[in-house]
Design brief:
The protein is built from 9 helices and 14 strands. It is α/β, with parallel strands linked by helices. The strands form 3 sheets. Strands 1-2-4-3-5-14-6-13 form an 8-stranded mixed sheet, with helices on both faces. Strands 9-10-8-11 form a 4-stranded antiparallel sheet, covered by helices on one side. A hairpin with a 6-residue loop joins β1 and β2. The longest helix is centred in the N-terminal third of the chain and has 27 residues. It is elongated, with a radius of gyration of 24 Å. Bound molecules: nickel (II) ion (NI).
């Protein structure tokens, strides 16, 4: 493995500068979920010029690239997400976003550049590959529908035996990675509640049904579900993000709409929460003579890493940065990531790539208008993914 790793690292050192330029170009041209058109054609051009097989879709701007050494062999898949966020960039960088109101504030520019660089490097040392390698460039990670389901429906996981992905992580310094066995990130669901009352003069509340008061009671009771109906050892979050209702200060409100999100790290808890919510809302509405509508949208599953695959990530990372720089993140976080959908079908692992470098001001949280990644982390990401792809499966 030692000799093979130095062959890989040599190839990566040869393209590192170019990949940094590509990352910065992607950063300057961010595109929203579902609109990754320039990103797609930019990648396609580079991959094809390298002689790497590329497949496009008629339905979205995602791409599949492949290196096939033997059609009978299985694939190892590496995945990158391509989309940016509706945020106005406030960095002062030579490669600041040129698309107003859109920004790579989650590091997907880095993920795309890393997986692209890994593809180029592996293609250069193709005769050392033991498996076929598939590179999944996925659109629309930032939206609930998630581009991963489109990629999977179109066959991205066909004949795949293992899948790996990474995410830039400003909470660890460049030169470290974070791993987590088992559940790493939460399931992400959305819901919408409408409460229907009956309007009347605000001075004659007994003649109406006050949708605002019913909503207040419903909000209260929803906040009791996690604290009183779910095992405290199973983390869950029910958060309301929007509330709209009422027309005038002197009219009893007849309609309120609420929207929110549910996060869990446990299948069973996730399955039970919508019912608990509806029972609670229905009971309150009945007691107050109000009506309701409840829509629950199951979004992204929890991200469940395969323990053996996490061991492979640790082993590969140890070769690149030393075991002491592989950090056990211990606790899951309640954020979501649609990589979880791939892991429902195929064993694999997702890990965090440290990108914090104080001197370069890259320690700012994701989704912040001053977020950026340290380009020195790109070659670390390429080396780790490259080593994982070179493993015999
Ligand atoms: Ni992200």
């Amino acid at each position: 493995m030692k000799a093979l790793s130095s062959i890989l690292f040599h190839a990566i050192h040869g393209i590192e500068k170019r990949i940094i330029t590509i990352r910065q170009d992607l950063h300057a041209h961010p595109e929203l979920s579902g609109g990754e058109e320039r990103t797609k054609y930019f990648l396609k051009g580079i991959l094809e010029a390298e002689g790497i097989e590329v497949h496009e879709s008629d339905h979205h701007f995602g791409l599949i690239a492949q290196i096939i050494i033997d059609p009978d062999k299985p694939f190892i898949a590496l995945r990158a997400d391509m989309d940016a966020l509706p945020i106005t960039e406030l960095n002062s960088l030579p490669y600041i976003s040129r698309n107003e109101g859109i920004m790579h504030a989650c590091g997907h520019d880095a993920h795309t550049a890393i997986v692209l660089g890994t593809a180029i490097a592996l293609n250069q040392i193709k005769n050392h590959l033991k498996n076929n390698i598939r590179f999944i460039f996925q659109p629309s990670e930032e939206i609930l529908e998630g581009g991963s389901s489109q990629m999977i429906e179109e066959g991205a996981l066909e004949n795949v035996k293992a899948i790996f992905g990474l995410h830039a992580y400003p909470y660890l310094p460049t030169g470290q990675i974070g791993y987590k066995k088992g559940v790493m990130l939460a399931s992400t669901d959305m819901f919408e509640i409408e409460i229907f009352g009956r309007s009347s003069h605000a001075a004659r509340p007994h003649e109406g049904v006050d949708a605002i008061l019913v909503t207040a009671m419903a909000v209260n009771s929803l906040n009791h579900i996690v604290s009183r109906q779910i095992d405290p050892l199973h983390p869950a979050v029910i958060s309301l993000g929007t509330i709209e209702g009422g027309r005038a200060a002197n009219v009893i409100c007849d309609h309120v709409k609420l929207q929110g999100t549910v996060r869990t790290v446990n299948h069973d808890v996730r399955r039970r929460i919508p019912e608990m919510m509806e029972v609670s809302i229905a009971g309150i509405c009945k007691s107050m003579h109000a009506d309701y509508q409840f829509h629950y949208n199951f979004g992204i599953p929890e991200l469940l890493n395969d323990d053996a695959m996490v061991e492979q990530v640790i082993e590969a990372s140890s070769t690149v940065i030393g075991k002491e720089n592989c950090i056990d993140l211990i606790d899951p976080v309640m954020g979501g990531e649609d990589f979880g959908r791939y892991l429902e079908t195929v064993p694999g692992a997702f890990f965090r790539l440290g990108t914090c470098n104080k001197a370069k001001e890259t320690c700012i949280a994701q989704h912040n208008s001053r977020f950026n990644v340290d380009d020195d982390a790109l070659s670390i990401g390429m080396k780790i993914l490259g080593l994982l792809a070179l493993k015999e499966i």
